[in-house]
Amino acid sequence: MKPPIFIKQVLPFLFLYSLMILVTLTIDFILHYYHLVFVGWYLGFMGTFIILYSFIYSLRKRKIILSGSPKELLKMHEYLAWIGSVLILVHAGIHFNALLPWVAILMLLINVASGLVGKFLLKNASLSLNASRQELIASGMTLEEADKNLFFDTITVDAMKKWRVVHLPIAFTLGILSLLHIITVVIFSK
What we know:
Number of strands: 0
Shape: elongated
Largest sheet: none
């Protein structure tokens, strides 16, 4: 019998999300160790521009721009958004001194998580669930018996399908919070 979807799909997702946090902490540690904390300030700019550049995919998907392969632009979006998020997380560090940066980082973490759900989990999990269902039916089970046998896998896949409902509004909220952060830094900096 095949391993459950949780093991095949969710654990690799958790690994990649954890890797993002680990890379962030490692870069932050290195900057602190070599007394280069000021570099984090510039990483916020770089991360923001990298994430903004990754939205070429969204513009292509909505036919605002007509050039470029949607599949390749999606890959670019995924990798650039991950890299930009790491840079912004390093920029934030552990030195939050106001509510707005805390909320913006929380939105960033949620947005990355929802994006990773879409990238790594949903398509593969749906295909795996359908393949498992077909295997069980081919082995002589009825559709009802197969669905009963795959109950928890079905619940897992259904929960993951909700990612679109979260990803876009969170991305929009993150954009607004980032803009507010930039405006307040400009207004209140010396």
